[in-house]
Amino acid sequence: MTQELSVEIVRNPSSGYTIPPPRAELGLGDDENRDVRIMLRHSERDTLMLTAYVSWLPSSEQWLSARLDTTPQTLLAKAGTLRAEWKRLVVEHTDDSPGPGTRVGGRPLSEQADLTPHSALVETLVKSLAEDGYDVLDVMLDGEGSSLRRLREFLLGMLAEKTDLRISFDSDLPLPWPMLAVDPSLHEDPWEAFLGHRHQVEHTNPGYEYVDQVPLKPRRRATTSLNTDTTLERVGRAEDVHGLLASRSHLTVRTRGKDLLEALGNAVLPEDLMYFWCHGQLMDEGTANRRLVIKLSDADLIDSAKFERKRRPLRRLPQRFKPFVLLNACHTGQAAAEPHVGHLGTALINLGAHGVLGPQIEIPQVFASEYAYSFLDMYLEGRHTAGEISRKLVRTFAEKYHNPLALTYSLHRGLHSRLDLAS
């Protein structure tokens, strides 16, 4: 007698390498010929596996995979050096031969957003930084195996093409993807070598959690929050950003950590956008307790553990926390380089945030406020995704202001985030 068996699949040993995951999981848009998913996995044996999924190739060629010869430690060290070079060459560049109206020891590339008067210097620095960014990618893909050589040739060729791609780097390692570059010797303009200039780029992580969200009724205006340190109110365009949010959304302003944590304790926090304009720093309290913190106007230091503690009791309740988050504080776009280093962006995404955008390095406040105004102005229109806006700003600041710092802003799981007032 035929017996029908009931089967439940509880594990996927292939990690998606054998069967392509569904479109929704890949985050593919309407034009799938622009979407690429690149997975970098750190195995228990301390080796790296790189896999690329390209939807428009024939089915037999959509998956390309190879074990990397380089080590995780080498790549993390390279990434740290790249961030340090950006900070040293751009943010901390000092003027030892000032002209009229400038001072000895000043930092001309940090004191204004428009660097047109320093365009010759900037072009030299950008060329050097593009070479450094290519070095990280070159070392990552260096090796002798046939599978690795094939993957290297394909990836470098695809990334160097003029086609505007949407790339999700689904990576166990926190690398500054927009600051990496293809071979700058292949391009007349070194700006065009950077991945963040060529393509829309996001960092995702297989460990991100999914949070079921209750829907909101359709509404005419976005709900936003400004979480700020009042000492920064008059820096750069900070007042203009405040005015923009106040005039085009229902705005809540928080200046104390207590108020922010209290808000996070509400099951339904119906904010479409959360903007942080405050200080951020890495607290080195010993190797086992290194953490990233932000601080508003009070003395309370807020880290990922406090965010999670506030919303942990709500996980089994109907809840709403799905904002796009602009973390305009130093280092907040820098994912943890070691598992024990808490990262605010990861915590916010695991709590339900639709995406997080923040800088990889200590960013000049004048530039940060200018970047925030430009980003929020376009995002609140609801016509563009965060990925479209972030790449457009890289190009705009490069072409109009000769300023490369927009490349230091990294998207975390926010490539397709768009202001949606219907849900």
Describe the biggest sheet? 6 strands, mixed
Q: Quaternary status of these chains?
A: single chain
Separation of termini?
Answer: 51 Å
Query: How many β strands by DSSP?
Result: 14
Shape: globular
Examine the coordinates and then state which fold CATH places here, giving the name of the CATH topology of the largest domain.
Rossmann fold
Mean pLDDT: 86
Helical stretch tally: 11
Structure description:
The chain is α/β, with parallel strands linked by helices and 423 residues long. It contains eleven helices and 14 strands. The strands form three sheets. The protein has a six-stranded mixed β-sheet, sandwiched between helices. The chain has a five-stranded mixed β-sheet with strand order 3-2-1-4-5. The protein has a three-stranded antiparallel β-sheet with strand order 9-10-11. Strand 1 and strand 2 form a beta hairpin. The N terminus is likely disordered.
